[in-house]
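Quick illustration, no need to memorize.
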Amino acid sequence: MVKRVYEQGFLDILVDPVCGIVRELGEVPLPEEVPDSFHCVVASVSDPRQFSVWLADKIAGASGFGEVSELWAPAVGEAAERYCGNNIPTDLLRASPEELAAAGRSFLDPLEFPAFDESLFTERFPYQRYDPAAPILWARATDGEGEEILVPGSRVYLNWNQGSRRHEPRTHHIAYAGIAAGPSKDFAELAAFRECVERDVTTAWWSLGLPAQAIDPATVPGMDALRAQAPDFDIDILFLPNPEGMPVFAALVYHRGLRIPGAGFSCHGDPASGVWKALSEAFQVWISMHGVLEADGTGYRSVAEGLLSAKAYFPHQPDRRYLELAGERWENVRDLACQAQLWLDERLHPHLDRFRPAGERIALSEVPAVDMAQAWRSYRGTPSNRVATVDVTTKDIRLAGLHVARVLCPRLLPNFPSAFPVARSPRWKEHWHFHHPGNEDMRISALPLPHM
């Protein structure tokens, strides 16, 4: 259920084999087990390192159910998102929080964001403690009232420690959530915000063992047709209640013969659209895991071709016993790709019951729709939420009619590989007390999600 939101004309501007930001668009061949109605499209992105130290992702993609042609624009949109997110300005302000405060500048303090627990700072840990006295680089942003606010540049941009920033302090993991592209600034900001909420809610649900409400798949429009195309898959769908009252969904697909799981999540005001978005993610994760089932699978070939980092996956294990590689405290699970790969190890599969809670399933119609644009305006306009937005659109992308936004929500939890959990945040207790008021027996698990 792909929905068109872009004007197709921008593809003519951005896609060209010689001088396009995207050199090529192509549909990806999928395993025969995948439903016929599901498609993946990949955009091959030009390499700006030919003329700069600007590091852009080599590929971007989009997947979904429906017509392949509806995926071309979202794939280019994701390419634009990564392209702009990696274009880091050279004129960022360098100052310490104390200097900014003395100058009367408004800023988001790095201490406002979720942080690592002190126990993680060992010799092997790749990040260092944040020093509030040290000057850092700041990006200009807009707060919830439309006023200028400075935000840590490392929270805005991707692949931060490159080029002239190679020796900047490494105090946190990359901010995966909260950057999005769209046909308008408002669209991009809303998409980025929805992603922040999705990751916050799913991280808390999984790590705290919070309850969820199972949805009867038979009540989801179009599900009967999907099941007919994928008879060997078990499909589970959850609604995740949360403090913000926004519809967040989880989906698990599990192939009984190959014993491969894949999970997906979404935050969407329209429940049916949210479920299908989560299912799209789940099948995409499943396909990625199928690609590392064998040593010559598509995942390992992508690493060999330089399309993915050599550290993305664990070395292939014919017996699928990946837990031995993860480390006692998951310290070797440093990438979302290898985090999902762990779930090829069937010793983890009992934990998939989190997606199959006991009790009566509800109909999808029982989940209320939410006006997400209004929810975003309300959340952004609440001063205590400390929201900031950054327009990271480059001139060439803007000329094509696209916009890319970074949204910072320091109160919300990010997603992270299990080696880098952020245990220091009051947000954990907000989620816990929403489900268990008055109960202080909260424990945070670093068990990896079957998601990437």
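The chain has 13 helices and 13 strands.
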